[in-house]
Amino acid sequence: MSAAPGTADSAASVFHLLEPRLPSVSKPIQYVGGELNSVVKDWNCGAPTPMGQTVRWALMYPDAYEVGLPNQGVQILYEVLNERDWIVAERTYAVWPDMEKVMREDSIPQFTVDSHRPVGAFDVFGLSFSTELGYTNMLTALDLAGIPLHAADRTDEHPVVLAGGHAAFNPEPIADFVDAAVLGDGEEVVLAISEVIREWKAEGRPGGRDELLRRLAVSGGVYVPRFYDVTYGADGSIEAVVPNRPGIPFRVRKHTLMDLDAWPYPANPLVPLAETVHERFSVEIFRGCTRGCRFCQAGMITRPVRERSLSTIGAMVENGIRKSGFEEVGLLSLSSADHTEIGDLATDLADRYEGSNVSLSLPSTRVDAFNITLANEFSRNGRRSGLTFAPEGGSDRMRKVINKMVDEEDLIRTVATAYSHGWRQVKLYFMVGLPTETDDDVLQIADLAKRVIAKGREVSGRNDIRCTVSIGGFVPKPHTPFQWAAQLDHETTDERLRKLRETVRDDKKYGRAIGFRYHDGKPGIVEGLLSRGDRRVGRIIEEVWRDGGRFDGWSEHFSYDRWMASAQKALAGTGVDVEWYTTRERDYDEVLPWDHLDSGLDKDWLWSDWEDALAAADGADIEVEDCRWTPCYDCGVCPEMGTEIQIGPTGQRLLPLSVV
Ligand code: SF4
User: Where is each Radical SAM core domain found (predicted)?
Assistant: First the structure.
């Protein structure tokens, strides 16, 4: 009989099995752990504490190490959990297919990189999903870990499989595979969950797994799909989602961290051993966004805005550089230039690190001249290479539909300022497939890019001006005003992109100065299926995985045909298909799969905002302003969640102010 989870045998390191095989796999360094600032704790570190229990978390970002390690969310939770003397938190990442093969051949279970313990030995297996395309990687990890794929087949010996991250705002497609999901900010809820587990263990695990999940569910802050029954109507849509046990709440609420200054993480940033997608120290300068872009799920589900003060940001930057040795610092948020004290922050940080090897970066998305001033400050130590702006919609009409209130003249004025300050490259980000979009809206992207080049040449007097147009496909997301919208089919998406590419390429005067980056429309359809899917979509995910689907976020691994063939098989007899989930517009009355998951947004407000979008498409001049600077327009979040906007200016400056 196998040892119980958490005992010495089941938790022993598997490194002796792994090490001999490392030379035979690609990038073996990603599996060895031991990064600067990583933590290996005593497996029984909780024993001397009053309750005598250790709670153990295996945290996973379900992508390869190079993408997963820099993930802020996982790094923060790893640190928050490990700060408790009775919690062990370790990390695991998706293994590449060559490593998966080796692990299956040698019976090596999914392991953590910190101490190479089997994931199956932990109390919680927590996965952070920033995209739905990581779902098949979760199944690989579960299978390698020896954890049954289906939550219903798990016993007391298996960890609680917990999903978080933005995709967890609709976890229904993975409801069969996860035991629980949490919505919103993780810092406090992971500790609350740990407390519940510790108490349950200290009591001798009464009622087993089922009772533990019940205790988590009745808190109202942890969603346990098995405690909700979903019924479907004759037309295939959901009839109702209702709790199937007494005491289980009808709706599960998101978590909102209200004092970011009190949680200055990461304080000990992990320094990767292998090459990763971001090699910098990032500080989140605020959380949430109320600009009201209708396509933006991140902005909608992270409301309200909560800023970090300048003094905390300054201290975090200094500490992070000292602890990690990184030379680049990124100031992150959904729209960093909107921090109320961003001007002071830029000047103070630039003064402080001028002449040093520290470079500062700000993901620039706002289209206005002030952004150029900021970019100039941040580039004092470096070259003025490229600036990125995100008009998102190709025409003024489309930008009104999505509530991105930037007109073409604003953009041209902004890029003129950029080019006249010595910037040579401007990158413009757009989406294709937005609701009510026509070919003409997309072709206007080419006109805009040409005007940008022309203006750049004019103000700089140079010919080496470049503009890169980068295009992503729009995917309607839950908890946004576009959650009811029809997604554009991939054939039309590709056709629009083809026409745009030809228009750009055929232009003799400007075509060569315009770079064009885009993806075809097929992955967007799969993302759309997974984003707005219900529990029936889980069968497709499993079918795809059984057919070899892995790393769906990587174009070299993604197979649209596999997804479509699997969908046909898995949905047979249900009366619904991929088009039903993706290219179909929903009615107001339809029960959406995530309606019982409470992001705080009022459904009627979302619906009226959707109607405003359609009215704007027909020429109405309706703008939803940012509630940071205008009165509250009752989106529902603050009263529902008991939260409020937290913005400055606080008047506190960076300390010390001396130049280092
Ligand atoms: S409830 Fe009002 S103040 Fe709060 S995020 Fe919504 S619109 Fe803004």
Answer: 275-513
Distance of alpha carbon 227 from its chain centroid, rounded?
26
Q: 33 C-alpha vs ligand 1 centroid, how far in Å?
A: 43
**pLDDT tens for residues 495-511?**
999 999 999 999 999 99
Q: How far is the CA of 303 from the centre of ligand 1 (A)?
A: 8
Phi and psi dihedrals of 126, rounded to 5? Answer: -100, 125
Q: 198 and 56 in contact (C-beta within 8 Å)?
A: no
Contact 90, 81 (CB under 8 A): no
Euclidean distance between CA atoms 531 and 581, whole angstroms:
9
Q: What is the pLDDT of residues 548-595, one digit of tens each?
A: 999 999 999 999 999 999 999 999 999 999 999 999 999 999 999 999
Atom of ligand 1 nearest to the CA of 288: 5
Residue 574's SS3 state is: coil
pLDDT tens per residue across span 236-287: 999 999 999 999 999 999 999 999 999 999 999 999 998 999 889 999 999 9
Looking at residue 159, its pLDDT comes to: 98
Q: What is the dihedral of CA 89, 545, 227, 585, to 10 degrees?
A: 120
- What φ, ψ does residue 127 adopt, rounded to 5°? -115, 135
What is the spatial distance between Cα 535 and Cα 542, in angstroms, rounded to a whole number? 12
- The answer to pTM > 0.85 is yes
CA of residue 297 to ligand 1 center, whole Å:
15
Q: How far apart are CA 323 and CA 330, in angstroms?
A: 15
> Given ligand 1 and candidates 301, 638, 643, 644, which is best to mutate, with the most ligand atoms within 8 Å of its CB?
638
User: What pLDDT digit, counting tens, does each position of 405-445 carry?
Assistant: 888 898 898 888 888 888 888 899 999 999 999 999 999 99
Cβ of 633 below 6 Å from ligand 1? yes
CA of residue 360 to ligand 1 center, whole Å: 31
Per-residue confidence (pLDDT) for residue 372, from 0 to 100 = 78
Query: What per-residue confidence (pLDDT) applies to 416?
Result: 87
Does 626 sit in the ligand 1 pocket, CB within 6 Å?
Answer: no
Cα–Cα distance for residue pair 463/466, rounded to 1 Å: 9
401 pLDDT more than 90 = yes
Beta strands 286-287 and 306-307 are antiparallel
Evaluate whether 219 touches 180 at the Cβ level (below 8 Å).
Answer: no
Cross-strand pairs, 114: none
Cβ of 456 below 6 Å from ligand 1? no
Helices (H) and strands (E) in the chain, counts: 21, 18
Average confidence (pLDDT) over 81-108: 98
Query: Which of 290, 479, 625 has the most ligand 1 atoms within 8 A of CB, as the residue to mutate?
Result: 290
Centre of ligand 1 from the C-alpha of residue 185, in Å: 18
